[in-house]
Amino acid sequence: MTEGARLGRTEATRRYDVFRIDCPARDVVDHVTSKWGVWVLIALQTDDLRFYELRESIQGISEKMLAQTLRALVQDGLVRREVEPTTPPQVTYGLTEFGRGVGEPLRALFDRITQLMPPRETE
C-alpha cells in the first residue's frame, strides 16, 4: 500500500467521523435513519415513483412528512427529483447511485427482519 493511499483513507476517516457533531455525514445518517427516511429509500429500491405513489405505498406518512423527507434526501444526494414540464408538473422520485448503495442494505435488513421474525400469536 502506498503512503498516499493510507493518508487519503485517514483524512476521509477524520473528515467523516459521524460521532462528531460537526461531521457533514452526520446529517445524512440522521436523514437516512429517520422514521420515514428508511421507508422512502426502501420504497424507491424497485422503481421510480411519483409523490402520490410514494404516499400510498408508505402507510401512515403524511404529505407534509413525505415532502420534508424527500427534500432532505434530495439535498443529501440520495434521491433525485425529476420534473416533467406538463400542466400540472409531474414529479418523479428515484434513487441516485449513492441512494441505491445506501438503500440496498436497508432493504436486506427489512427482508431479514420479516423473514426471521417469529409469527404473531393470535389472541
Summarize the structure in short.
The chain has 123 residues and is mostly helical. It contains 6 helices and 3 strands; from the N terminus they run H-H-H-E-H-H-E-E-H.
Shape: globular
Number of helices: 6
- Residue share in helix: 55-70%
Order of helices and strands: HHHEHHEEH
Radius of gyration, in angstroms, nearest whole number: 18 Å
Number of strands: 3
Straight-line N-to-C gap: 61 Å
What structural class should be given to the helix and strand makeup?
Answer: mainly alpha
The average pLDDT is: 87
- Adjacency order of strands in the biggest sheet: 1-3-2
Share of β-strand residues: 5-15%
Unreliable stretches: 1-9
As an assembly, this protein is single chain
Name the features:
6 helices; single chain; 123 residues; mainly alpha
Walkthrough of the structure:
The chain has 123 residues and is mainly α. The protein has six helices and three strands, in the order αααβααββα. The chain has a three-stranded antiparallel β-sheet. The longest helix has 20 residues, at 97-116.
Per-chain topology:
Layout: H1 3-15, H2 24-32, H3 35-43, E1 49-50, H4 51-57, H5 63-75, E2 79-84, E3 90-95, H6 97-116
Antiparallel strand pairs: 1-3, 2-3
